[in-house]
User: What shape does this take?
Amino acid sequence: MTLPSLKWWQSGIIYQIYPRSFQDSGGDGVGDLKGVTGRLDYLASLGITAIWFSPVFTSPMKDFGYDVADYKNIDPLFGTLEDFGELVEQAHARGLKVMLDFVPNHSSDEHPWFVEARSSRDNPKRDWYMWRDPSTTGGVPNNWKSFFGGDAWTFDQQTGQYYLHQFVSGQPELNWANPEVRHEMADTLRFWMQRGVDGFRVDVFWLLAKDPEFRDEPRNPDWRPGQPEHNSLTHIYTQDLPVTHDYIREMRAALDEFDDRMMVGEIYLPIDKLLTYAGTPEAPECHLPFNFHLILTPWNAADVRRLVDEYDAAVTKSGSWPNWVLGNHDQHRFATRVGRAQYRVAQTLLLTLRGTPTVYYGDEIGMEDGHIPENRVVDPAALGQPEVAASAGRDPERTPMQWDTSPHAGFTSARAEPWLPVAENFTAVNVAAQEQDPRSDLNYFRALTRLRGGSAALTGGSYRSLETATGTPTLQEGTSLTGGGYQNVQAGSGVFGYVREHDAEKVLVLLNFGTEDAPLSLPELEGATLLLSSHGEADSSVLRGNEAQLWQLS
Ligand code: GLC
Assistant: This one.
């Protein structure tokens, strides 16, 4: 029973599709929209609420679609506007919402706006982008760096100025201080909402504004050689500038012209700053400022608990809505990061915390990072900074979806290799095999989404973590589960437990981050109903190593 007062983006689950890698219908080795349409029944079977597509717009693909050459069209590689319309209709018919990836910070250098802008200094589009004269010594205008390595500036011979790009040079930065740019972007949102789009994930939201004086950024004292060069600066002039909030409020106003639409913003910032991007009830901004902290926090019970407590309290105080993410197209697969043994613990955490979870395609079957031979690396983040490619390269988490054991894992009928190699484990880890196995990761995922969807406590209830103490990881006898008196002795072994509660419904989640069994001794578990264990059967006397348990408390 979900709470009727919640919006779909609060009670629901978002599922991210990286369209190049989900399903190819055309046999060219790259995924497309028709491929996704053909897989909608599978998507609906997962118990998710919305699908978000990484960019499918016209693009020369220098950053695989995050370099947009026409914001109001679909790239032929993915299909047509008609294919998109069909997909939206078919998704809606199955009760699935559709979200697009909106990339407002930069366009492609092949976008007609930029082609015009670079044609002469007095072109009316010139000010749509960010141009600077060379420095007095003749080099780049300042010390700003690209996320993908090297300077954030490229010299334009014809007009004798540099243009700014914080990613590849094919991604010139739009000038958000120019009202015409903002007007055009709001119009783009309307264009897609009129075509039935329910929401947007917004790319690099916290980078939209730049220092109008283009001052040098100070050195980051914590930076060490071997880390990406971009981190060598403290980004006080390119990130999180106050005026960004004005821009976001304008975008929000365009969304609010339509019913029940939403946006989730890509924002990598500490929790206090992150939450300012939700705005206030009087001046709302992002419905969900993406919370990436589970990805960034060390994987042990104490650190994860500290994070969840801090974030939950901060969200409550700010009056906004929480959300959680474990993976996306820029981060190594979580099954690889936390390790196979911890995979279900992590999945359980994501789907039982208070807040909207976002799931990355393939994580429901436990896909791991693929091995990318050197001659198959295509990601500009890896190619631009070979010295840190192993950590910065994003190809490993973008490998084709593993559907079955046929050649290329059922992703494409192409004879040639798909755009990225299929991960080697596909014969063992694939949808078809897991459909047959009631104990598979896929069916565990479905069990979690079913429980979540059917539980007011899990979708909208409060969150309260169990107290930590040292010693054996047992729940102290005689303590009460109600009224804040919940005492849990955990620590050493790394057990994290919390209660989700709504009215009379109480769900206890126990996660063992360690490999050691943790004996449980909790009177309230007598008479409680086991909802799910990552290990299949379970009893109330022990939480086994790497086990996740969900209990309905009476
Ligand atoms: C975001 C995207 C990433 C892209 C970058 C530039 O971080 O998630 O994939 O490369 O923006 O658009």
Summary: The first strand starts at residue 14 and ends at 17.
